[in-house]
Automatic annotation (TrEMBL):
Gene3D superfamilies: 3.10.20.30. The keyword Iron-sulfur applies. This is 2Fe-2S ferredoxin. InterPro entries: 2Fe-2S_ferredoxin-like_sf (IPR036010), 2Fe-2S_ferredoxin-type (IPR001041), Adrenodoxin-like (IPR001055), Beta-grasp_dom_sf (IPR012675). Keywords: 2Fe-2S, Iron, Iron-sulfur, Metal-binding. Residues 1-105 form the 2Fe-2S ferredoxin-type domain. The keyword Iron applies. One of its GO terms (biological process) is P450-containing electron transport chain. One of its GO terms (molecular function) is electron transfer activity.
Amino acid sequence: MDVLIKIKDREGVIHELQAPTDMAMNIMELCKAYELPVEGTCGGMAMCASCQCYVLNDVALPEMGDDEEAMLSEAFYVKSNSRLGCQIPITEELEGLELELAPEY
């Protein structure tokens, strides 16, 4: 099953992406699959914050882990709604999620 996730890129363009729930992907990998400008330098280990995004609507997300919290405490452009895309697995619960990519450093 696919879910619809909307991602606003750094130019303000909104991309409506079909995200598969059966491939163990996360938001960072989804962005890369659709060739959105997300580095993912650390490969999804919550160690670089290059996949930081802002959550724009109220969709239930997994709790933030210690590694993600620590990385965001050191990252640039962090807001109260910041998350690391690599730490958000794509599940059916994400249907309708709206995100915005954080600025690059």
